[in-house]
Amino acid sequence: MKTLLEKIVRECSNEWKSGRVATYIPELGKGRADASGLSVYSLSSGPASAGDTGSPFTMQSVSKVASLALALETLGEEKVFSAVGMAALADPFNSIMRLESDAPHRPHNPLINSGAIAVLSLLPWTDGGEKFEAVRDMAARLMAKPGLEIDEAVYLSEKETGNRNRALAWFLKSVGNLEGDVEEILDVYFRQCSLLTDCTDLALLGATLAAGGRNPVTGEQVTSCGTARIVRTIMATCGMYDGSGEFAVSVGIPAKSGVGGGISAAVPGKMGIGAWGPALDKRGNSAAGLAMLKRLSEELGLRIY
Ligand code: GLU
């Protein structure tokens, strides 16, 4: 497996050139555009990695997988999906347009920014600090990474400049679709997006979901099988932003990306994959990550469709 991963990283080493590092969160703009890494956690043969898989980066939207899993575990499917939809969206992840035009103004799915913010507002902890600790704990258990830290500089940078997310949250509040203190919920959101991870963590996150919620390293049943199935399904339909349809055809694996350049993918019953490259395509997905996942899926016949 390691030899295959090394070959793929080598063959995709120029793919980053078609993308650009995110700069709308100023601190993210410091990322090295040409870095890339690929990790697999196979449920039958364990971990393998190639490229730059130890460098830390922020989870960004990949963290929405953990908050969704937590919400499903604590509140149940019915409650979660009465507040957010399950619909894929052809608009960018931070768009406000359809949220305003489509009554009853519920976020279309839990993996776009408005949906993730709405999910956080539902969680049954009123104190923002406790809410964040619950999300962090879920992410840590999914990735077997106790002591999961946040990147303070990225957190502060997004908190200072995240006015689009503020607009989404205040709009939800104005139509009665957001419970609690808006700024406190946004603070939890900015913190969870700043959780520091690496490629090997994202492979294990995918592997835990691929194994029906059981972390293959710790042996802990982190979520129920049902929660893992729902999270994988929403990843498959909505996880790659407005590129989800294209990704389903070209790669064919449930996956979630983040603007830090990370992608976590879950191949049911087989493996988790972590891919990283900070240069993003126009939809916000890692350019190198997409190319490497496509190659890996083809080489190993991983498409689930
Ligand atoms: N923190 C980012 C934002 O809210 C997350 C977006 C993403 O990774 O897609 O803009």
Helix percent band: 40-55%
Query: Would you identify the CATH H-level superfamily of the largest domain?
Result: DD-peptidase/beta-lactamase superfamily
**How many domains in all?**
2
Tell me the number of strands.
9
The total count of helices amounts to 13
What structural keywords apply?
alpha+beta; Beta-lactamase; 2 domains; two-stranded antiparallel sheet; 13 helices; binds glutamic acid
Give the helices and strands, then pairings:
Layout (H helix, E strand, L loop, with lengths): L1 H10 L8 E2 L15 E6 L3 E6 L5 E2 L4 H13 L1 H7 L13 H5 L11 H10 L5 H16 L8 H10 L1 H12 L7 H12 L2 E2 L1 H12 L14 H14 L5 H7 L4 E3 L4 E6 L3 E6 L2 E2 L6 H14 L5
Antiparallel strand pairs: 1-9, 2-3, 2-8, 4-5, 6-7, 7-8
Helix pairs in contact: 2-3, 2-5, 2-6, 2-11, 5-8, 5-9, 6-9, 7-9
Structure write-up:
This protein has 305 residues and is of the alpha+beta class. It folds into two domains: 2-55 and 196-297, DD-peptidase/beta-lactamase superfamily (Beta-lactamase); 61-193, Beta-lactamase, CATH 3.40.710.10. Helix content is 47%, strand content 11%. The protein is built from 13 helices and nine strands. The protein has helices at residues 2-11, 63-75, 77-83, 97-101, 113-122, 128-143, 152-161, 163-174, 182-193, 199-210, 225-238, 244-250, 287-300; strands at residues 20-21, 37-42, 46-51, 57-58, 196-197, 255-257, 262-267, 271-276, 279-280. The strands form three sheets. It has a five-stranded antiparallel β-sheet with strand order 3-2-8-7-6. Strands 1-9 form a two-stranded antiparallel sheet. A two-stranded antiparallel sheet has the order 4-5. Helix 2 (63-75) crosses helix 3 (77-83), helix 5 (113-122) packs across helix 8 (163-174) and helix 7 (152-161) packs across helix 9 (182-193). It is globular, with a radius of gyration of 17 Å. The mean pLDDT is 95. Residues 60-61, 93-94, 113, 158, 165, 193, 258-259, 284 line the site of glutamic acid.
